[in-house]
């Protein structure tokens, strides 16, 4: 069994290797709050750290290559989180590509090009590199085995078997769901198959996850984006919190929930 986890993906731009970038592993070792904090990426780690450092007092600039943060989520939910963060002062640069990077003393200078072709220089005291994850495969001697990969991860079937069926790869190393609870679940699949020889398969129908921003964005099961990708028609019931007594008394009326139904399975997801 290979369960070596994942690490922050290396920089997509070679120039970023020439500056001191933080990752999710070493960001908590900072001894001084950066005056200006540049975040490269728009996934859960990026947005959670962006909001946290903004609330601690940093000026935060978040650069995202696509037009939406939290790309796994439906656009309306991701936009709700982004609007809340923007109201607090986080500045977003969407559809923006990093083209160069350099360091002058302690100052990091990131050159970016916006979707409309404008070139800008963003200057900050710290840069968080949060542009995805990659499996920890180095130093394992896997090159000679010819194991199939999916991007930077090991490819597995629903029994957690790699292309060499006697080798299993649960958890972050397969790149499916990079959550602790998902790794534990997949580990159980391995035990069932490898130890007890039961043909148990992973079923992610009701896999839950949460992004710990404020407001939090929690999901379980199917959403509109995953339904469309699978070619499944869903009905959506959306409920805003403006008329919710508890939300009103706590001044948290920005919240929203959605429920999803399919003709075949009925209730299929919630966010």
UniProtKB/TrEMBL annotation:
Q: Which residues form the signal peptide?
A: none
Molecular-function annotations in GO: flavin adenine dinucleotide binding; NAD(P)H dehydrogenase (quinone) activity
Q: Which cofactor does it need?
A: FAD
**UniProt superkingdom:** Bacteria
Return any one Pfam family short name.
Pyr_redox_2
Q: Which residues form the Pyridine nucleotide-disulphide oxidoreductase dimerisation domain?
A: 207-254
Q: Which residues form the FAD/NAD(P)-binding domain?
A: 2-187
SUPFAM superfamilies cross-referenced by the UniProt entry: FAD/NAD(P)-binding domain, FAD/NAD-linked reductases, dimerisation (C-terminal) domain
Report TM segments: none
| Keywords in alphabetical order | FAD, Flavoprotein
The name this protein goes by in its record = Mercuric reductase
Q: Which organism is it from?
A: Desulfolithobacter dissulfuricans
């Amino acid at each position: 069994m290979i369960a070596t986890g994942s690490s922050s993906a290396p920089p997509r731009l070679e120039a970023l290797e020439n500056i001191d970038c933080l990752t999710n592993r070493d960001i908590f070792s900072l001894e001084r709050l950066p005056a200006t904090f540049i975040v490269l990426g728009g996934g859960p780690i990026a947005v959670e750290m962006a909001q946290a450092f903004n609330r601690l007092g940093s000026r935060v600039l978040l650069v995202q290559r696509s037009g939406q943060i939290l790309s796994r989520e439906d656009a309306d939910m991701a936009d709700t989180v982004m609007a809340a963060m923007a109201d607090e002062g986080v500045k977003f640069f969407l559809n923006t590509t990093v083209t160069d990077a350099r360091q002058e003393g302690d100052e990091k200078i990131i050159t970016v090009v916006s979707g409309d072709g404008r070139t800008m220089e963003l200057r900050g005291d710290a840069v968080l590199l949060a542009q995805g994850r990659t499996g920890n495969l180095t130093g394992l001697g896997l090159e000679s085995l010819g194991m199939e990969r999916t991007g930077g991860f090991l490819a597995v079937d629903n029994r957690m078997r790699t292309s060499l069926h006697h080798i299993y790869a649960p958890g972050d190393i397969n790149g499916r769901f990079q959550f602790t609870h998902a790794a534990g679940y997949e580990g159980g699949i391995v035990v069932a198959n490898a130890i007890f020889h039961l043909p148990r398969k992973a079923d992610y129908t009701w896999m839950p996850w949460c992004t710990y921003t404020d407001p939090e964005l929690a999901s379980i099961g199917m959403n509109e984006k995953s339904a469309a990708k699978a070619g499944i028609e869903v009905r959506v019931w959306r409920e805003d919190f403006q008329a919710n007594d508890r939300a009103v008394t706590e001044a948290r009326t920005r919240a929203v929930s959605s429920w999803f139904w399919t003709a075949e399975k009925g209730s299929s997801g919630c966010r």
